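Researcher: Sequence recovery benchmark, item below. Answer with residues only.
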């Protein structure tokens, strides 16, 4: 077995997730997930795309590792697919699924890349959804069991774990608004899906530690809530949005309590689905907090009939990506600095576990993909991370979303976030101009680090 490489004080990397790249959804014993069911439902995914093949990473992972080696990254964040590891969501493991992740991890280590595994990036085994999904408290316990199975097999070589990816989006898009799997439209009745994910995070953290994991994180999406105007009603609406997006998934983990939900007409100290002892379980010490940042969100006071205490508004005169997301790099600095100031000593080191943009730029006559806009986006956001570090944020890594163009959930293959272009007909991979830019940046920063560049964090192994 190849030893885990020692991480530098600041690690550079890329991130992906299982469902978005692996394909092979029915192979080697993998069971169905909520996303297979959702994608097979007419009208749910743009143009009826499915992830049955995606980037065929299940078969082509050696080629993808070779690309990562060319990039020169320190870390690769991927996710393990629960329905591949434990097809029923409970009960026996699927050894063939675990074998795949063992081959992947070994290949990464041989390439000198440290693997970071996310246990849950939204692909819930369908049998668990059939018994209530994350609305059902038992799913938290099943998640801990799956974490233990995975860590027992991979933990001798894989040290870095992330429990959940973006539980806010999973709750909001999957359980409140129905835009993602499993497609429920419960609005505020989706809150148990938040609490049970948090409980699952705490129980899985305990399971990972029991299996010897040395580095455990949670990854949340963060977006500064910018009031539409200086009016008190807009400011109050932004506060309520922040409680839902940031506080709901950060306060219980770092502070052992839920934030003020009075704007939603709820007493956060008396939520009926929170049982005695849950908050202690959730507030496990962490080795890092993963930050996925794409853009800030502009928040206005709600119109009279709006069921929630806020409305989402557009920013005026800002560039947008192909997804229509505003490009505002200063929001990255604001996110990292506000986490640092607001959570103080309770905050573990920060990792930017995702940052990127979707632009669909076709290959030119020579087959080159000149995605200058992505280079502009990424370089401005790396600079924004540097600014946050200068202002006191303890940031230990930066990971681009994503290595490859991939299956972008309800958008199918329409949003291209990759540093590497994927032709979904042929599966040909073509590194874009942003790939070369990122490889150069990493090489330059590494030279700078060796000379003790500003922005270095005092570094024990992290
Ligand atoms: O593709 C997603 C990813 O799965 C989670 N974070 C945001 C990305 C872009 O939408």
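Model:
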């Amino acid at each position: 077995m190849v030893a885990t490489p020692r991480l530098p004080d600041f690690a550079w990397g890329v991130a992906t997730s299982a469902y978005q790249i692996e394909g092979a959804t029915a192979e080697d014993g993998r069971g169905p997930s909520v996303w297979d069911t959702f994608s097979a439902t007419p009208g749910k995914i743009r143009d009826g795309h499915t992830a049955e093949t995606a980037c065929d990473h299940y078969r082509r992972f050696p080629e993808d590792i070779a690309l990562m080696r060319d990039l020169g990254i320190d870390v690769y964040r991927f996710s393990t697919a629960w329905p591949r590891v434990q097809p029923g969501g409970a009960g026996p493991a699927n050894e063939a699924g675990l074998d795949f992740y063992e081959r992947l991890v070994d290949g990464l280590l041989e390439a000198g890349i440290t693997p970071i595994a996310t246990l849950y990036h939204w692909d819930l085994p369908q049998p668990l959804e059939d018994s209530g999904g994350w609305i059902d408290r038992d799913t938290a316990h099943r998640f801990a069991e799956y974490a233990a199975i995975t860590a027992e097999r991979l933990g001798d070589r894989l040290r870095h774990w992330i429990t959940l990816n973006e539980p806010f989006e999973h709750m909001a898009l999957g359980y409140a608004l129905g835009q993602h799997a499993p497609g429920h439209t419960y609005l505020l009745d989706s809150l148990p899906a938040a609490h049970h994910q948090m409980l699952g995070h705490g129980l899985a953290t305990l399971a990972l530690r029991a299996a010897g994991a040395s580095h455990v994180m949670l990854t949340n999406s963060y977006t500064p809530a910018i009031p539409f105007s200086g009016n008190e009603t807009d400011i109050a609406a932004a506060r309520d949005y922040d409680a839902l997006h940031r506080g709901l998934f950060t306060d219980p983990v770092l502070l052992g309590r839920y934030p003020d939900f009075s704007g939603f007409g709820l007493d956060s100290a008396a939520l009926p689905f929170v049982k005695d002892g849950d908050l202690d379980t959730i507030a496990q010490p962490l080795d890092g907090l993963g930050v996925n940042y794409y853009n800030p969100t502009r928040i206005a006071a709600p119109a009279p009939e709006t069921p929630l205490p806020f409305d989402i508004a557009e920013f005026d005169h800002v560039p947008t990506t192909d997804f229509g997301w505003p490009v505002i790099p200063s929001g990255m600095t604001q996110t990292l600095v506000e986490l640092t100031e607001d959570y103080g000593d309770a905050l573990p080191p920060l990792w930017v576990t995702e940052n990127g943009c979707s632009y669909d730029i076709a290959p030119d006559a020579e087959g080159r993909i000149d995605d200058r806009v992505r280079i502009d986006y990424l370089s401005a956001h790396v600079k924004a991370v540097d600014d946050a570090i200068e202002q006191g944020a303890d940031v230990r890594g930066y990971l681009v979303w994503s290595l490859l163009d991939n299956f972008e959930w309800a958008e199918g293959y329409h949003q291209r976030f990759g540093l590497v272009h994927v032709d979904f007909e042929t599966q040909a991979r073509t590194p874009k101009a942003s790939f070369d830019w990122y490889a150069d940046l990493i090489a330059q920063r590494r030279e700078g680090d060796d000379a003790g560049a500003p922005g270095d964090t005092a570094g024990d192994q992290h």
